[in-house]
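Morning, I've got a small favour to ask if you have a moment. You're getting the sequence in one-letter code plus the fold written as tokens. Thanks so much in advance, here it is:

===
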Amino acid sequence: MKDVSEEAVQVLVSLFYQNDVHQAELGEMSEELVLELLQTVHKYNISSLDDLFVNLICSQSDDIFSIRSALHFYLFTSKIEAYRVIRLKMIGILKRNAAQLRSTEAYQEFMDKNPKEAMELALILIEKLASK
């Protein structure tokens, strides 16, 4: 697991032994760590933890996700049907922050690095805003 941070490995090892993460613990983790854990669980097909992370991410308050992290979660989950519920949560967060989204450095970076996905997201957000 050379592509996984030491902190993520420690959390995963702990989870293998207790198979439970309390909501407070997830809220105390950085958004980057939570995303790394989700990516690792998916990459290594650790199905015993997959549902746990999906449920915990979806049960968190939208307020803990920055626009940057919502974009990162959206990008990662956009092609994985099992993570549709996370993707929809991130779309909701981005929709509620649509006024600030365009002017953020995170979105400019997202558009530069992922133009196809940025266009798809823009179309989804336009559709969601139009159906209000």
